[in-house]
Amino acid sequence: MQDNLYNLAFERSILSSIVFEPSQFDDLSVMLKVDDFYLPAHQDIFKAIMTLFQNDLPIDEEFIKKELNKMKKFDEQVLLEILAANPISNTKAYVDEVKDKSLKRHLLTLTTEIKRVTVEEELPSADVVDIVEKKLYEITQDNQTSDFLDSPTMTFATMEYIKEMKARGNSVLVGVDTGFKDLNKMTTGFGKGDLVIVAARPAMGKTSFILNTVHNLIMQDKGVAFFSLEMPAEQLMLRMLSIQTSIPLQKLRVGDMSDEQWSQLNGAIDQMNNAKLFVDDTGSVNINQLRSKLRKLKAQHPEIEMAVIDYLQIMQGIGNQDRHLQVSDISRGLKMLARELGIPIVALSQLNRGLESRNDKRPMLSDIRESGSIEQDADIILFVYRDDVYLYKEEKEREKAAKAEGKEFTPTYVEKEEEEAEIIIGKQRNGPTGHVKLVFQKKLTRFIDQPSFAQATEFVYENVDTKSANIDVGGADKIEMPTL
Questions:
Q1: Is 464 exposed, middle or buried (0-12, 13-18, 19+ CB in 10 A)?
Q2: Which of 51, 156, 275, 478 could form a disulfide with 218 if both were Cys (CB 3.0 to 4.6 A apart)?
């Protein structure tokens, strides 16, 4: 391999510096990876140092030699060369140089991969582009991993995770904050790599529901990517401003506001100008295009913590497959993309109208359009349900029928500004199913927690052994995180 793709002297100097000053390995372990070293013997020594560090053992010549012998990788000549190298003071400059050469090696490997998938496997160009973009994203994000993780690596990572959770003060919130205390208690938040489906019939408020979560995140200075396939970006922003200011959406649409409300709006605009919200409203996107756009955006803005697709059934398929096969490719692609980027991806979904013929119109998993693959790939499936939508609809149908028969009609349904809403957890891979109660403010198209959360919250669990799971149905604070 060409000399400009590695520098053995720099590698020896870095390892020598670690041996003579082990305290700096804590910082270097974050910057360096095993395959950043070109020489296999250097990789083995770095692995041995990592193992000693993880087990809180001294990082010195004798312990490194002992660990290498256990690995059956001991090379006395290489270790002597490292010990003979001069320790360096500006370690970071050497690390940057080694990583730069490592990046070039990975890029060279990628060119070989491109030739293989293009010429030898004769893959379609769209698939080749997707493979290349994924590999390039992994390389630039320093995300190369081995095919298998061994037990010591997994146990160490798991213990670090548990310690991090403990440092949070035993908080039930592990993933991305949903914006609703009730839902956080039930789900511990949307986890990294999760595919979350939010499904509902039209007019139930699924877009409004997820916009509440989006608003909550950007107010915490966290980034959100939003693919709006149905609604222009301006309409999304109007809803966000209504949530932010508590000014009715209709007033914002026509500009009919008091001086005080105009002042509130100006303040909200200033806040939104600094928000890390990125909206793609092109209205037509397939899974390959979405992957490409989101990878690029995530690379440019690492602060993005969630992506939203509104909504799944509008996404275009690839090729001439049947629609259910296209949806299967889309849902699987979204799940793999969520894992790749390490963020939850929330996809909104329509429900079949067949549920409206039932007496109890609360949704079930089988009501999701093209439900098979979506149900299988999703980590969490939430249904948005408001009984008042059907009560109002039935009232109008009775009124219409009475007028057609020439009869007098007496209204029985009183339309409310605030309606009770349910978020039904139809599936949760790492937690219980059930539902929580929210309040929907119609004029603001906003969902909020029920008033007096601590007293009013009532969780309903389904298909879960509350005794063995240490869940006290009467007290939300006693819910424990699901076992890893």
A1: middle
A2: 275
Boundary-marking domain end, from 152, 183, 211: 152
d(CA 82, CA 136): 33
Q: Tell me: the pLDDT tens digits for 236-273?
A: 898 989 998 989 888 888 888 888 989 989 988 988 88
Amino acid at 325: L
E strands, 284-392, in order? 304-310, 345-350, 380-385
Say what the pLDDT of residue 173 is. Answer: 76
79 in Cβ contact with 65 (< 8 Å) = yes
Burial of 58 (0-12, 13-18, 19+ CB in 10 A): exposed
* Residue ending a domain, choose from 108, 123, 152: 152
CATH code where residue 454 lies:
3.40.50.300
Structural element, H or E, at residue 159: helix 151-167
Query: Is 115 or 334 the better-scoring residue by pLDDT?
Result: 334
**482 pLDDT band (50/70/90 cuts)?**
very low
Residue in 3, 27, 11 with CA at minimum distance from that of residue 82: 11
Report how far residue 3's alpha carbon sits from residue 13's, in angstroms, rounded to the nearest whole number: 17
User: What's this model's pTM, rounded to 2 decimal places?
Assistant: 0.65
User: What pairs with residue 448 in β-bridges?
Assistant: 439
Number of neighbours of residue 349 by Cβ within 10 angstroms: 26
Residues 374 and 325 in one domain: yes
Q: Where are the beta strands (DSSP E) in 51-173?
A: none
Average pLDDT on 155-162 reads 75
Q: What domain count does the chain have? A: 2
Alpha carbon distance 358, 392 (integer Å): 17
226: helix, strand or coil: strand
Res. 471: pLDDT tops 60 = no
**If phi over 0 gives left and psi between -120 and 50 gives alpha, with beta otherwise, what is residue 385?**
beta
Q: Where are the alpha helices (DSSP H) in 116-150?
A: 125-140
Contact 311, 348 (CB under 8 A): yes
Residue 483 in domain: no
